[in-house]
Here is the input.
Amino acid sequence: MAGELELTAILCTMLLGGTPEVSHGYSVGYDLHRIRVDCETDTHVIEVGLDKRSSLDSVQQALFAGSVTGKTPMVIVIDTDGREGPFELRVRTAAQLAGVSYRTYDEAFLIRWRMTSWLRQSRPRPSPEEPPS
Here is the structure.
C-alpha cells in the first residue's frame, strides 16, 4: 500500500491542483520557526492525514497554517479501512466545531486515480485534414 506522503502527493497535485509540502516561516520573539503545509492551493492550506491517531492534531495544524498564510484552512483524512473510526470521528467533530472544512478520500480511490491518470491527459488530435499517422 501507498504511504501518507505518496497519497498526499496524489491528492494534492492530481485532484486539488496544489503544491505538496510547502514550507512557511513565522517568528516568535527573536526566533524564526518553520511549518510545513501538506498541501497548499491558491486559496487553501490543507492538512492531510491517514485515519490514524497521528491525525488528531490536524485541525490545530490547519488553523495555524491558515493564520500564517492568510488562506482558508482545511483538513482531509484518507480513509484506509472503509469506515469512520474513532480518530476520524474526533477529527471531524473538532473540525466542525472550529469551522474548518473537512473531507475524506478513500485510499483505493486515490491509487486508482493515479493509475488511470494517463487516460485523462489531453493529447493533441490531428486536424480533420490530416490523415492519422
In short: The first strand starts at residue 19 and ends at 28. The mean pLDDT is 91.
